[in-house]
């Protein structure tokens, strides 16, 4: 196994130490593994978290206009309830906290337990479960669909709504709407390697790729010979369109899985755009890059969200986080 | 070879098509292979370029506060003089154009020829050659040192000076100063694969890494067993410190080579920061991520720039490009 680490056992601590040094505007508690920023009194706060190995998700999305806190677990391991509870308490501004949770069994359970603890403290919690992946109905890690690329969209758009001073119920409703209007599909050319394991999560032949992959190296839909970018885009979009009619204006995220060069992601984005526009769907907003990764997996996921005017305006609102930032 | 492409022959065109669709604020001429934004009349403009395969460099740095134009060549191949000349003409605002050129033989030659053509048109050109890599004195592709990570710093800081309305001679002097105050050193755990070739540029054993690597897969200083992040940071910084005394405030860039997860780059940044601060050097500014890549190479480069108050202020100035953006 070749990685730029000290030891697998210190990976998360070491990475958080570096993250803290690189982003002094955020509060990083390396021991308790929570990344926070100060809440705005009287406003809703957003907390997310999940296993590490998907960077920049989630800590890279803490900042004005997006999350208030992130709780990273060990690699591919859910954060624990006490950790999520500590983050929730730290960023509560008195108007309630939205938990953004990817649909993995451990995450859902531990966020639910943390929500009960917060409720005991008198902090109102709403939860949105992100389950945008159309590839498989159940998986090694989930009952129902997996949460993948749409997590970024939920965190950005709900974060903007919270910033605007919307009440918890409204912020939660918007988050739910983003998830409901989003679908994702991923492919892998090579599996990632969990440092504590030391070998790739699965093995593909030199001329083989995996269709319908998740972000933990769990099995996808099928394997097949490596295909041109155009066919990969079409395969992913066929799967998405079979599940949600594509029309009007959409936001597209072409997301790298950690080991794929940016140049290839732009090739994929060109093909995704061409496919959609040939069918009368307008790509009004986009994001191309590594946002929800799977360690050093080679591959990409494609997320399509059907926009509304309100969702587009919230997407366009200023954001200032380590991994996503723009102004007016 | 496993890549998200259509064919090696269409890779650059396809990627530029995607880049154009993703970044409608920029003008992308896919046929002529130039990416531009409108110049400000009476202000200096900045043009850079080089072989593709190093994305987001350079097109990802076109935008307010940074470059005015980028000219991508084929993968690992210099842009041609006519292309550079076209870009220069397109963005000339009447106050001269700075060419930012990485020190590779083909790039230096072709930018020099383009500068002559521009001079014939009455456009005043200044050139800064970036040669920050301390690893090797001459290489397969260079006479003298290679230009690597410092290119981002030169483009950002000289771009801010141009935005401030400085004259060409001053912008060029600042660019030269940034290069003179910067040193880089890179390592690779796995070589990248040029699509048109189809196999990795070099082969390392499963327990081996390459020290002092460049951005084209050319040989570095030496090979050795894979080392912990702490030792890699120390080795790189020893090499840098042997060449330029490290003191006062510095800016550190920990740059991924395209195939390295962000989590590992933060581990490297933690070790680089610890090494420097133990020696009384303060890391006042930083950048962690993929900025000057080498296709899907696994590894990283470390760049250290000794700051001055002026350079720090220019670094902090607003910038709005696809790959680097922040406001006030």
Automatic annotation (TrEMBL), chains A, B:
<dbReference type="GO" id="GO:0019563">
    <property type="term" value="P:glycerol catabolic process"/>
</dbReference>
<dbReference type="Pfam" id="PF02733">
    <property type="entry name" value="Dak1"/>
</dbReference>
<dbReference type="GO" id="GO:0005829">
    <property type="term" value="C:cytosol"/>
</dbReference>
<dbReference type="GO" id="GO:0004371">
    <property type="term" value="F:glycerone kinase activity"/>
</dbReference>
<dbReference type="InterPro" id="IPR004006">
    <property type="entry name" value="DhaK_dom"/>
</dbReference>
<protein>
    <submittedName>
        <fullName>Dihydroxyacetone kinase subunit DhaK</fullName>
    </submittedName>
</protein>
<dbReference type="InterPro" id="IPR012736">
    <property type="entry name" value="DhaK_1"/>
</dbReference>
<keyword id="KW-0418">Kinase</keyword>
<keyword id="KW-0808">Transferase</keyword>
<feature type="domain" description="DhaK">
    <location>
        <begin position="7"/>
        <end position="326"/>
    </location>
</feature>
<dbReference type="InterPro" id="IPR050861">
    <property type="entry name" value="Dihydroxyacetone_Kinase"/>
</dbReference>
